[in-house]
Amino acid sequence: MRTESALDALLDGANTHPVRLHEAMRYAAQGGGKRIRPLLVYAAGELGKVKSHDLEASLDAAAVAIECIHAYSLVHDDLPCMDDDDLRRGRPTVHKAFDEATALLVGDALQTRAFEVLANANGDAEVRLSMIRSLASASGSRGMAGGQAIDLESVGKKLDLAGLKQMHAMKTGALLSCAVSLGGIAAQLSSTQMQHLATYSEALGLAFQIVDDILDATADSQTLGKTAGKDAANDKPTYVTLMGLDYAQQAANELQEIAIVSLASFGDEARALKALAKLVVKRDK
Fold first, then answer.
1. How far is residue 187 from each of residues 62, 89, 182, 210, 241, measured CA to CA in Å?
2. pTM reported for the whole predicted model
């Protein structure tokens, strides 16, 4: 798989000093998963009219960078001070396989590695800068980290639907939207094309989190590869607890349709993005 090869090439080797840290970084980043974000990078990159070696290298760098950010977020999310989980992707979480201090440093190092990979990517400097800017915005206090903060603050509280949407748009949607944006930036799409992608990714990001909420309530831990039922156990607001299972499933299907329709102007070139929208909603883990 292209993502796995790119991760292997662009992460430091497990024997790099300090060995324990680099071994743990690879454990976190190469531990499997759906790889939805890298797939979105590559799928959006297919929309470009000009194919080149620099484009392919930029897409690989973007795919690795966003997966490093995603992996770091999971490592920190699983820590005892956050969601306190022992299972991730069907394996012990990093702080269980190694220790808490190492897990904290793994997250720090994967985050900085993401931006290093983008800074060193082939191609136009303005393209690299735009990708760095997009990833930084999606990862920070107005994106993923901010959404996680709202999530932690919301435990045991009642959020209305608008508040829940805002939290999910930041915590999950921002990074998914960024993945699509990175592919479009690398392919040097027009502003109009990027706006169509923004509509697609906004709908996709919300659908992804709604399906996560559904699976947390309906699937088992073995299927998910992580602890099922955590949201209910921790008294977290979700689409299922707020609006019910039927509403959540209907909302996910409607968002899938919005995402697919937004790609109409790209024609058959967007078939991979359309397939990913269907995969996100129909997945079982």
1. 11, 31, 9, 30, 40
2. 0.93
